Amino acid sequence: MTGAALTELRAVGPFFVAFPNLKEAAESNIPIFTRARSCTILPSFVGVRFHVHNGKHFIPVQIIPEMVGHKLGEFSPTRRRGKHPDPPDRKHPGQRAKTGGGMGKK
């Protein structure tokens, strides 16, 4: 991007969603459910609980001062870590691990 384009992007300012019940939620500790992952966290959000949608579930996020300036979606991961299957038994390297099901007769 050129210098002029970067200046225009900075002039636009942060993206945030107007939450009408923000003050009420801060006072009564009621969580705010949102799908606005791209919303920038403002200083007025500190102390408020959000439930941010990750595409499948709402993930609870408590806003602390260190989060100001970041996006809500940064604290609601959308992917799970992959889990590898258990390794086969090392005592008998020629045998396969028992899977519990088979097509053969017993």
Automatic annotation (TrEMBL):
Q: Does Cytoplasm appear among the keywords?
A: no
What processes in GO biological process is this protein linked to?
ribosomal small subunit assembly; translation
InterPro entries per the record? Ribosomal_uS19, Ribosomal_uS19_CS, Ribosomal_uS19_SF
**What name does this protein carry?**
Ribosomal protein S19/S15
The superkingdom listed in its UniProt entry is: Eukaryota
**One cellular component term from this protein's GO annotations in UniProt:** mitochondrial small ribosomal subunit
Q: Which GO terms describe its molecular function?
A: RNA binding; structural constituent of ribosome
Keyword Ribosomal protein part of the UniProt annotation = yes
Instruction: Please give one Pfam family short name.
Output: Ribosomal_S19
- Its source organism is Exidia glandulosa HHB12029
